[in-house]
Amino acid sequence: MPLPIDPLKAPFLNALEQGNVVVSAATGSGKSTRLPIWAAASGSVLVVQPRRIACTALAEYLAEQSGAPLGHHIGYAIRFEQAIEENCNVVFATPGVALRWYFENRLEKYTTVILDEFHERRWDMDLLLAILQKRAQHRLVLTSATLQGELFAQKLNATLLNSDGSLFPVEEHFIASDMRAMPTKEHLAERVKQACEIALEDTTGDILVFLPGKGEIQFIKTALSSLNIEVIPLFSGCDKRFQENALKVQTHRRIILATNVAETSLTIPNVTCVVDSGLERRTHLRQGRTVLGLESIARDSAKQRKGRAGRTQSGLCIRLYGQHAPLIEKTPPEIHRESLTELVLAAACLDDGVDGLPFFEPLPESAKQLAVNTLQNLGAIDSSSGQATELGKSLYPLPLDVELGQLIISMPSSTLRQAVIDLVSVIAVPATVYSLPTSVDALDALNKQFPDACDITISIAVLRGLIPDMAVDAEALKEARQYSEMLRAHFLLPELAKASSYDKSALLHAIIQAQPERLFIKRNNRRDTFANGKIEISLAKQSYAQSTAQSLLVMSTFTLAGRGTKNAVTLATIASPIVLNRVSELIPTQESIVSVQFIDCQLSVTIEKRYADVVLTQYQRSPSTEEFPSVLAKAIEQQMLMPSLFEQVKMAIRYHQISNQLKKDLSQVPEPIDYLTQQVIKLGIESFDDLELVTEADFQYDGIEAWEIESLKDKFPLKLVLANQNLNVRYALQGKKVTIEYESGSRKEAPKRWELPAWSGLAITYQRASKVVPIK
Predict the structure, then answer these.
(1) Which option is the CATH number for 170-335: 3.40.50.300, 3.90.1150.10, 3.40.50.720, 2.170.130.20?
(2) Residues of CATH 3.40.50.300 domain(s) within the chain?
(3) Is the Cβ–Cβ distance between 676 and 649 less than 8 Å?
(4) pLDDT per residue as tens digits for the range 86-135
(5) Which is more confident, 403 or 239?
(6) How many Å apart are CA 260 and CA 308, to the nearest integer?
């Protein structure tokens, strides 16, 4: 069948003889099927496809067209699966597979590498392009329907080819209450059903509905059951039967509910109507972590979706949002919205390192540095050279996040390493492998079978087939077991069927000691919230753990992006309770002196052990020689020694700060406790007996003259005493602000302006607890 891309054959072959080529062609024009076959005339071709479904579907389609068995001339390679014979000269592979092949043999078998659908700008595609461009050993072809062709052609010194072949016209119809209405999930099932009813009435072919994820697909599939038409789900990891059914011509009408997997490369035959929800799940970077959020699509994605309806005949695109909805123009590249840890580690395994590769655009500096810090802390890259260490080189080939790979390597025994491999195999699968029972009887049965169960032990047991009655996703469980078998083989461990038993307590403690940041403590001031000093989490509904736990070992989290960093919610999906009194034994804690006492005429200190700002324990002991200056300063602060001294020093330092503000002097002024500590050292006081040799005068603060303090007191008082109200005063004179803070007294309301000093030209606010009120 003729395709719009066909007129480009001769120009493409001529350009490929000269060097790199950039091909810009509309969705459904045939570039993913024609270009690999044309390029194969000059040598073996590797086609790098972002999506697994597209890899297998394109290879199967072209193999069928060639009349040869799959893998003979045309094959594919995806994680855990490949169909490639020795003389196969066109191979479709995902970017992760292509990168690992590059590290194994520099892709020396292939003459041409085609980076298909490059507009998706995955980080691994960006990295692969940078590597191949730097080595200049292959002819490169970049293809896309929305590519910035001229810019890429310039960067690659490539020939730019545009396909002028047009698809069939597609009419657009918008279902929205307002022309500027943005895509929304509200009443999505009802609106999809309405659009499908319109499509069934106004078109004759199949209907392709774009939805944000598997959950929405399953829910809407049920909602469409009354339409008396076959409904097929299509998403990454769905049953192979559904994929085959969706991609083959049928004699009856169908509705295909798909995620973005159907947006490019995959051609679903006989589609005459696209229903576009305008939604997708897109990753974001929040506080250094990659999180998933429900977002409106960009205009380039909307164009791609529309093109699916004009593949073989005129079509219709029904948008479930306003015609003038303010969508962003382009989907941001992954390097701008995801963690760069894997990218930096991969680059560090090369001689160039991440800074030596010609990325199409500079990597975000903050995300890159965060990745470097993470890898250095893990010991995966060298801090001086930026090159991968032996640990880093052993981590990169693993099909896991580097933190999970490092956890496997850290296990002290074979049995614990097997247990961690099985656990991370469940975590590594994007889909949910199993669902906890919801009925009371089923939960009771689980408790009887596993009296000391937790998410971690249940995950391992499900993978090992020890809970046959658990509700599982068959495809996800199969993939998790493939991960386990691959990792077990890599580490020369027994296969899954011969898994060794393990000690739960030893496993939990080994994980905590290897990665202490996985331990979260219950926050005293936040209901059902746990923290590790960096992030806060709550328990997800699907976790077996209870929010009444005082501390948790958290293995897997799911972060929902909000409208800002503060609104992002991180949920723990796989967690295990840890006995609180063991926490300080298992992880590094922060120790600080919180009080000083006289016991038997000797100084004694109370030490507080904290983790994530939560007090774990307190104990008393004598101060060490190194601690003595700060302990003595603390005793002065607590008015145990020289009772009036601390307030005198504090007042003098506060007025020194005010004086500097008036003079616009940026010099640093010490905190009172720090000043007193330094004075103890300066005066050579090494024991309690040495205090007999000094007086209060030796500790007085001399950073500001006494006469200057007196001149400031009336205009800038540090305390105010009003009727039934005592107040403290803070000054920010450079910002022309004064804050008065409630200290004590029965009066609740803010003071009146006439009760306060003149403070001409200064904005005044009153603060009591978290409440702040302007005073005018």
Answers:
(1) 3.40.50.300
(2) 6-162, 170-335
(3) yes
(4) 889 999 999 999 999 999 999 999 999 999 988 888 999 999 999 999 99
(5) 403
(6) 12
Domain 6-162 class? alpha beta
Q: 655 CB contacts (<8 Å, ≥6 apart)?
A: 704, 708, 709, 712, 713, 716, 718
User: Which string of DSSP letters, residue by residue, matches 304-370?
Assistant: HHHHGGGSSS-EEEEESS-TT----SSPPPGGGTS--HHHHHHHHTSSS-GGGS--SSPPPHHHHHH
Structural contact between residues 417 and 408, judged by C-beta atoms closer than 8 angstroms: yes
Cross-strand bridge partners of residue 154? none
A 10 A CB-CB count for 598 gives 12
Whole-angstrom distance, CA of residue 317 vs CA of residue 174: 8
Helix (H) or strand (E) holding 508: helix 504-514
Interatomic CA distance for residues 236 and 495, integer angstroms: 27
Q: How far apart are the first and last CA of the chain?
A: 79
Residue 749 CA to residue 742 CA, distance in Å, equals 10
Greatest Cα pair distance, the chain, in angstroms, is 103
Tokens of 495: 């296969």
Could you give the CA distance from residue 44 to residue 46 in angstroms, rounded to a whole number? 7
Q: Which phi and psi (to 5°) does residue 400 adopt?
A: -140, 160
Strand order in the sheet with 159-162: 81-83, 74-78, 90-93, 45-48, 112-115, 139-144, 21-24, 159-162
CA 609 to CA 587: how far, in whole Å?
11
C-alpha pair distances (Å), 71 with each of 63, 83, 97, 106 = 8, 5, 16, 21
Mark out the alpha helices in 541-671 (DSSP H runs).
Answer: 583-586, 628-637, 645-663
Residue 342's alpha-carbon distances to 242, 445, 483, 561, in angstroms, are 32, 41, 18, 21
pLDDT(557) > 60: yes
SS3 522: strand
At position 116, the amino acid (one-letter code) is D
CA 748 to mean position of chain CA atoms: 45
Give which of 507, 581, 582, 569 is closest to 538, Cα–Cα: 569
Contact between 255 and 249 (Cβ < 8 Å): no
Each residue's pLDDT tens digit, 673-721: 999 999 999 999 988 888 889 999 999 999 999 999 999 999 999 999 9
* Amino acid symbol at 1: M
Confidence of residue 241 (pLDDT cuts 50, 70, 90): confident
184 close to 328: Cβ distance less than 8 angstroms:
no
Pairing of β 569-577 and β 536-539: parallel
| Burial class, 680, CB count within 10 angstroms (exposed 0-12 / middle 13-18 / buried 19+) | buried
Q: Dig out the tokens for 533 from the structure.
A: 């000093």
* Helix, strand or coil, per DSSP, at residue 103: helix
pTM of the model: 0.79
